[in-house]
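ENTRY TYPE: paired fold submission
RECORD: A
CONTENT: sequence, then structure tokens
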Amino acid sequence: MSAVGGPQVRITDGALADAASALVEKLVGDGAASKLSAGDPTLWGPEAEPEASKRLSWVSLHESSRPLVDELAALRRGLHDEGVDRVVLAGMGGSSLAPEVICATRSGGSVGGDHPLVVLDTTDPGQVSDALAGDLSRTVLVVSSKSGGTVETDSQRRIFSQVFEANGIDAATRMVVVTDPGTTLADLAREEGYRSLVEADPGVGGRYSALTAFGLVPSALAGVDIGELLDEAAQAAPELARDASDNPAIVLAAAMAAAHSAGAEKVVLADTGSGLVGFGNWAEQLIAESTGKQGTGLLPVVVEGLPQSSPGSAPGFADHGSDATAVAIGPEDPGAQIAVSGSLGGQFLLWEHAVALAGRLLGINPFDQPDVESAKQATRDLLASASDGGGSTGSGDDTPVLTDGPVEVRTAGDGSWLGTPSTLAEAIQALVDRTPERGYLAIQAYLDRLDDASFETLRPELAKATGLQTTFGWGPRFLHSTGQYHKGGHQNGAFLQVTGSVADDLAIPGQPFSFGTLEHAQAIGDAGVLAAPKNGGTARPVLRLHLADRAAGLVALANAVREVSR
């Protein structure tokens, strides 16, 4: 049985429990859990072994990250002695998702609670401007990038450095860098004399890095007791290493894999009162990037939280259908087939173990991300073309198919599937009609995820109207998360991309492009990659909607969605 307070997994659906039992026995018989905890890179086959051998240090982070506790406490004291207590994190994907969950959870869900953290994981000029508008005299910037060359993070570092200096602040004293050893960012931190350089464990991939310096540095500077977080993981670790049928990681991995074998390729995640704020967004990257490749995988669908008084209220959860598995994060819910609970540190480790073991059962390498680079390269190509005199980052004829009020409608690639709609509602209906049976809709909003947060209401509205599993992602953030699944997983998605006008753009110091140009290039680049046929298959339908006015555009979109059906 699980230790008191440790992670708990219960399969509440009898048929799924029966189907999972054989896979539980297989994992137990293979000694997979103990081998994983020992860092055995052979678990995923010879092709995956070279990558796995470099990516398994996360299994012991509850021990190896201990020295950071005192080191970061001293760094925080030094900053506070100088009156610096506002923490801004410039990071993407694995560099931002975990610390955001950690700080929000330890603050009881309050953005401005005991452990405030400003997460800057965007290229939207409005959101960047808002981060710059805070009290710079009290601000430290954590620049977090595993590769050291993340374009979003580098752009944020550049503009903060410029604005610090313009306000009479020595930028180097306000920069804390987290990166792998040997990166250009590490070299820059040393050359510029930045406040602190914390080199992370290179044997951990980004999506498994919650308990490395990437998760712990910004969290500790925001005042979180990271020692307690590591204690929670340490309590869970022995349980997850047991080759036993009640090991929660084995149970969760077997349930997800058994459901997938039966056609449930989607995992619907809903918080049912876990107290872990935004945990689904962290799990989304872990699941999508780890499993979404080689034309297979598990697509995470993060839905709205389910209050105990309104079970199954999020569209796509209780009405999930045969192509999805409903997972409650927290107390059991009547609509759920699996319930997962436990402390934050324990859940981080549980899901990492479970997803790695699910990768073994699915026959994929859970540590690579072969399709992430394509959108990045498309962005670089568009920016280079514009810088070389090619003008706009758009490609080809970017004339709207139609303009309906504040919304301009476009497609990507061969948009012949769209036909000749006369209204926005007809265009969205055409996208829905194009979605394959048992497919999914992905809403991708290249907007300000704070000021434009109301756009998230489009997910439940479209899911309710169509009955299709529907995801929502903020761009470019999702490119470092579900973007891998979109291009490498099951090719049955349809994509609704939303961009918005920029009232006040921001130049990026030392670069020939602005934040607005970069954001636009990221949107157009990814749309182009999605719309291109993959491996000789059919092209994925991409509907691009540009809002001349963001507020009015949301109203128009909401009204159009209400006219859509499946």
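RECORD: B
CONTENT: sequence, then structure tokens
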Amino acid sequence: MADNQQAVNPEKRNAFTRFLDGVEWLGNLLPHPVTLFAYLAIGIVLLSGLFGWMGMAVVDPRPAGAPGVAEDGMIRAVSLMNGDGLRRIFENLVDNFTSFAPLGVVLVAMIGVGVAEKSGMLSAAVRSMVLGAPKHLVTVAIVFAGIVSNTASEVGYVVLIPLAGAIFYALDRHPLAGMAAAFAGVSGGYSANLLVGTIDPLLAGITEEAAQLIDPTYQVVATDNWFFMVASTFLITIIGSLVTIFIVEPKLGEYDSSRADKTILDKSMMEDVTPIEKKALFWTGIALLGVILFMALTLMPRHAQLSIPWTSFSIVGESIPGWGVLRNPETQDAMDSPFFDGFVVWILIFFMVTGYTYGRVAGTMKGDRDVIDAMSDALASLGLYIVLVFFAAQFVAFFGWTNLGAISAVAGATFLQETGITGPEVFIFFIFMCAVINLSLGSASAQWAVTAPIFVPMLMLIGYAPEAIQAAYRIGDSSTNIITPMMSYFGLILAWATRYDKDLGVGTLIAMMLPYTIFFLLFWSGFFVLWTFGFDLPVGPGAETYYTPPGAG
């Protein structure tokens, strides 16, 4: 069957598919990802020496006195090709590795995921949910779940993406297509959601500071993009599903399991759920309810009152141990709180409790040794990722130290400002500019902290409200997350993918995700213009699209 498909495919490959083939071919000319990041780290050191010697600098758009702003108000290229740079590298090489944000999250989460996987819970749960389901419906569900998972921070990257690969394999579909669909939802749809997430108050705070450069009384709240985010959730779900079904999956073709890590392939994923597995899943559901109740106890308002219907019985929140303990202790805010800041702990608890419960009932786990072996096996599978992270962490740290990313962002923003475009079409240029900048500054908050003081005042002065500006920025930032190695979890996705295809290179991953980026940018940008200027709809509760500068008539 595979030979026959290879004979047919060349006749069906259209211009776009051939373009993606070219991207993949060029990308795979690059060395192994570990080697690539090592070269990039060395290259940044050399470039920093050149630009430092040239005295490259730009005016810092952030207000004087803000954190990180130099006394002279300039952002200068910092050379690592001198004594200070060499000392900084030697003193921080280990810290760069151990403090790389995704590393700790992945290791901790995988301890719990390992228990759930080794017990057989993940296999049974996946089979009970997806076997026999329409394949297109499964694709839609995965993309949608990826978008919604952003509320729970890293859970999409650590759990959903590899799980999507297992689901597609269970359905006898290409596992990389499943991972691509999940990756598109989690990271490409980063700014689409049904709920306000942890990133919303952070971006709103940066936007407010930038807006106050023009209007000191202006306030921006965390829900200022909520309406547009909710609508975008369904748009991105549709686009991501269609791209997966009609572009990515056909291009990948039939899956060749001979190129996979044999430990990742589980033929039992194609078998029906047995009676003992159904019993174990039932008790796992009970354990899950217990975890959810415990989570609720730590997040509910302390002064809330719990009443039992049709009775006079009630309990005041403060009398229940743990009630609201993980809310922000100073503001009692739920979003900006230890609950979400430490969400990886919930991932650990969730999978350990449910996995062990399943294992005990199913007979796959009899004691602590089985649990420890499961944890050990899970971490052992991350060998390539840990090596990759070491070099990626150095590259990211060196890039930040040199200020080259910030300089590029300011230069790009200045270019947009000099175009002189003032109509709604300025947002198209703005979105694409943010998308390009995101290729070098992978952090949404870091990029916005540097560019917001330029873009927000600039667009406010020509009549646009900060809320609309922020919504447009998030489109550009999200759309290219899935094709830039600067995104913190890119290395993790690459490591997951190589378990299904040991020869997979950076070019294959980028070519696989590029269609999502292209269609997200085109349709999401068009949807934004139609939403704000076509239908004149607000991007959030109380948010305006237009802004009248102080003193304007």
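NOTES ON RECORD B: Residues 506-534 form the longest helix (29 residues). The chain is about 65% helix and 0% strand.
STATUS: closed
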